[in-house]
């Protein structure tokens, strides 16, 4: 089975993010610090009132299997500490780079974990279809939390054939354009609020730099075996803007063909930027260089003043600190991001994003309790506290003040603003043969060898599974 988009991206970002997570120091529920040696850090007691609903789970163990490794794995485990302290349960965590391949093997062998974090709804659907008796419907407590703390769309993404099988975990926002606030200010440029303004700004940058040494855009879609996914994100964002959310849903679910004229129009709009020699690839090369430039480095020319804009998700912030730990990511900093604008600044605005989902393979009380905890504001707040940057939740009761990064705070504002219409990453919703296969490879060929729009869309349509 092909690896999911999100897990490949997550592993890449984890490798480049660097930096230690902030430690959460916890004492036993309601306990006090007995004191200690010089240099000890006094820990705040945990308020266990919100955890009484889970009962006494002393001596119980819940196993968790995920794609999340490295630094974020440490942050995940820190976020479980209040639950462990207050209930007495033990959470055994295992992150794996071979998650998508190994989870079905474990299910088949009867050794499935208690809990697994699924990195895409498409993978969830295939697991439910292939192993209908293995993945359990979400328990009552977790289901009620989803209804209380999340929008209906997040419930829908965890639902297969009318049954809720997965609850939301983390989230990200992809509809961002990274830029240098100081470069914009020095040039007198305003942040565009519509697609037409974005195009006009790109044209103005070309006019203001007649020698062509500075370009409006820089980009990179290289990502090892997942090369091409950043171009699919471009495509998804533009389909939302040119065709609208309803057509987007039809496209993702193959209710209209991949080569539908509305999708062809969207690809042409993407091409008006990514395949425009006057617009790209600032500081890197020509159009074809986008295909060979690692996505992790695609935005770097902004710092050198060689390009003005780079479309990439909220999680790209980790790459700036990798380039230079002293770079400030903020509205008044070295780099920041603005919302990738739609056709109108006033109408409902489309918002592309992604996230992970929690499924269970056991109905023991401690397993159901832990899944309910992962849907609660308490967990979201604990995870935000443990994570310096690059994580947020769509939980409506997340304490925004705990988000430590300005871009995470902005992302949360957009996710919880009713004027933005959220849609999940399309390739993560499609069958793996398309979403993690032909869509990636054909978009790469579209850029690398100038394959025509028609040929690309026809090839992807032909690859869609017939059953």
UniProtKB/TrEMBL annotation:
Keywords, in A-Z order: Signal, Transport
Which superkingdom heads the taxonomic lineage of this protein's source? Bacteria
Q: Does the keyword Signal apply?
A: yes
Q: Which SUPFAM superfamilies would you find in this protein's record? A: Periplasmic binding protein-like II (SSF53850)
Q: Gene3D superfamilies under this entry? A: Periplasmic binding protein-like II
Report whether Cytoplasm shows up as a keyword of the record: no
* Signal peptide coordinates: 1-30
Q: Which PROSITE patterns match?
A: PROKAR_LIPOPROTEIN
Q: Which residues form a coiled coil?
A: none
Q: According to its UniProt record, which protein family does this protein belong to?
A: Belongs to the bacterial solute-binding protein 1 family.
Q: What is this protein called?
A: Carbohydrate ABC transporter substrate-binding protein
Q: Which organism is it from?
A: Oerskovia merdavium
